[in-house]
Structure formats: C-alpha cells, structure tokens
Design a protein that fits this description.
212 residues, alpha+beta, 5 helices, 9 strands, globular
Amino acid sequence: MGISTKLDSVLSFPLGANSISITEAARVYEAIMTGKVYPISSENDLTMVPVIVKIVDREGEILWEYNPKPRMVISERISGLVSEILRKVIEAGTGRGAREAIRIFDIPIPSFGKTGTANRFTNSSFVGFIPGPDKKTGQLDIQKGYVIASYVGYDDNRPMKGGQTTIYGASGALPLWIDIANIIANSKIYSDNIQIADLAFSNQSKIPYWGN
C-alpha cells in the first residue's frame, strides 16, 4: 500500500509502535481511497512520489512523462468499509473539527481521515481525502478524489507542549488539512466540473466509493 519503511512485527503494532513518513501515510490513504497503488516506474517502485510528472525539451517534445500503471492491492469491499470508518472519524470522532468544514458554494462535501498524535506530543498529523468531481457526470466520486496529508512538529522532535498550550492531531495538523482541502474544493478545476443542483439536493453521505 505504499510503505517501504521496515516494520517490526510486535504486539503493539496497532497502537503505533512503528513509524512511517507522512509521504508513506499519504500513499496508504490513496490505496484506501482507490484500492490501488500507482508505482512511479515499471519496476513497481513505491519509494518515491511523482513530484515531476513531465519533462519536455525547448521544442516542446516530451522526453519523459509519468504514466502510472495502477495495481490493485485491496478489494472494493475493504476500501468501502475503511472509507466509512474514516468518514465516521470526522462525523463523530477525533476529526470532528472538519465536519461540514469543507465547502463548495457553501455546501458541505464529505471528508474522510484520521488524526495522529505521538507520545509526549512530539508530532501532530492528519491524513485523509475528499471526493473529486467527475467531469462526465458533474457529481462527486471517491475514485477521483484528493489525498491530503498535513504534519506539524519541531525539527528536533521536542514536545509541542507549553504552560497553556498542547498541540495534538486535532489542534495542530487538522486546521491545516481543512484549509488545504477548502483551497482544492474551491479551485477552478474542481468547481467548474461540479453540477451545483446535484450537489445541493443529493445525499452526500451516500457518495459512491467506487463510482457505482
């Protein structure tokens, strides 16, 4: 699912005994959202992300272009179930600060994600995704969504805790995540492909996870 860091098989694994990078976390959420991974090369390399997607010469000839060949890693059922858990986190869990906070034309769109807080408040993260517009239907579709990963922390890994302030997942990284998600949702490329009437009168909680 995009993790290249060596993970130790310990009993406390589900509690966060292993650490991964914020980039790896974003890749995992991409796999949750789509059920697929998108290797950067034909060797199925998942250690890098395509920061550069095209290289052209001075005449405009394409020298190299990122053409991913996605590979299915989890089933549609698992993707849908985990996405529903992540939606509940925002509806009534640690990510509820984002509930109805992502809006386009002042209409809330569904969000999916999870907070992350390290011991002693040394790290604050929030990773999640929002659905994207389907150009053909004008409706929102998880398969065309956007993964966003935000992180707050000191370079020297000291605790983000003072006399009156403590920074954790919901208070540090989540506000950044909300701002970035709103910038994306209100960008021209996003809003131009949305049918306002469909968005206003549809039940957004029932957006298809797999476009069906």
